[in-house]
Amino acid sequence: MSPHSVVRNSWYVAGLSKDFPKETLSGHVIAKRPIVIWRTKDGDIAAFDDRCSHKRFPLSKGRLMPDGTLECAYHGLRYDTSGKCVMIPSHPTGPISPQAKVIGFPVKEQDGLVWIWPGDPALAEMRQPPRLPEVADDRWESIVVGPMQVPANYLLLIENLLDITHFYPLHDGNIGDIEQSKIPVEIVEEKLHGVSTVKTVRRVQGYKQPPFMADWFGYPVVDRWHTHHMMGPGLTRVELRCAPPGKLGVAAEECGYVIHHSHTPIDGTNHTWRLWVSTRSKNLTSRIAETFPAVMDEDRWALERQQRMMEYPDDGYHEVYLRSDKALLRCRKILEEMERSNRAHAAPVAVHKAA
Ligand code: FES
Ligand SMILES: [Fe+2]
Questions:
Q1: Which atom of ligand 1 is nearest to the CA of 75?
Q2: For residue 266, which of 88, 99, 270, 336 is within the disulfide window of CB 3.0 to 4.6 Å?
């Protein structure tokens, strides 16, 4: 996959459910597609090509009429919730060309998130967006951090998440931990809702925690189980469990967190990053979440510079692969295969069904 490509045939987070109040239009760009999204009077989410079929004026700048149609702000064409143009002010007696319609995008709302499929709608039916069980579960305390716009291809963020050997030196001073770069890493591959995924597992026993983790969890020395799971092009799940030596698996002794990262491509060189920190305690979730704005800034700083270097031709340059790069190489292959499916399927022609 090139540092400018995006996988279109995938579910991506468009926003939180609460970001979409009823009858409010919002314009987005997801996987290089301009998309207008709104919640209808009935509470369903509608998503269509943001370009009016007349002269490409952004429909997100138009308005919703009392009958639920969307009126373009330029010459007033109105669209119903199937994407069909149903009124043209300058052709009051019709007929209306069947070309006067906008493409619809599959949408799913679950776990408090709105997911969009910017690819071939026929393929969306065979896939499900990944779940964020802890975010949806009231017994867990979750805090969302972001959204942050990162001027880099989203693959660079996924690679960053899969390879935590960058904690030192990039995050030195906050979550930097040089010792964890030495923990051996195992790779697990599995299919999830029909999508190939890759997970790194780092297990360590009698590990001397860095001060910030000893402070969060209260144990200076632990047995630890730490995973980073690319669950699809749109989501990576991180899980950390630790306990005093010999006590991993004993619920009363275990501490840890789950962090879900959503990475939604805007175009080939920009993406939107959100993360949800979940633990069993409100206080702990807040303490962990408050470290993240600074950590995310450091990652954005690195990814932006990395992306700039991608703009130069190779001219004899060769990338070096370390042991810790194994998962990201696998991840590149998976996304490359998925990206090929963009080309195998033409642009969507299906019409979004009325809610
Ligand atoms: S561009 Fe929308 S009505 Fe003309
Ligand atoms: Fe990082």
A1: 3
A2: 270
> Is there a contact between 70 and 59 (Cβ–Cβ < 8 Å)?
yes
User: d(Cα 42, Cα 46) in Å, to the nearest integer?
Assistant: 11
Strand partners, 29: 34
Can you list the positions of beta strands (E) in 82-185?
85-87, 107-110, 113-116, 141-150
Alpha-carbon distances of 83 from 117, 130, 211, 350, rounded to whole Å: 16, 27, 56, 10
Q: 75 CA distance to ligand 1 centroid (A)? A: 5
The residue whose CB lies within 8 Å of the most ligand 1 atoms, and thus the one to mutate among 50, 71, 74, 102, is 74
pLDDT digits (tens, 9 = 90+) for 151-169: 999 999 999 999 999 999 9
Q: Whose alpha carbon is nearest atom 4 of ligand 1? A: 75
Ligand in closest contact with the CA of 150: 2
- pTM for this one? 0.94
Q: Based on the number of CB atoms within 10 Å of its own CB, is 230 exposed (0-12), middle (13-18) or buried (19 or more)?
A: buried
Instruction: Tell me the pLDDT tens digit for each residue of 280-291.
Output: 999 999 999 999
Let me know the angle formed at the C-alpha of 95 by 93 and 100, rounded to the nearest 5 degrees: 120
Q: Over the range 269-278, which residues count as b (16 or more CB within 10 Å of their CB) and which as e?
A: bbbbbbbbbb
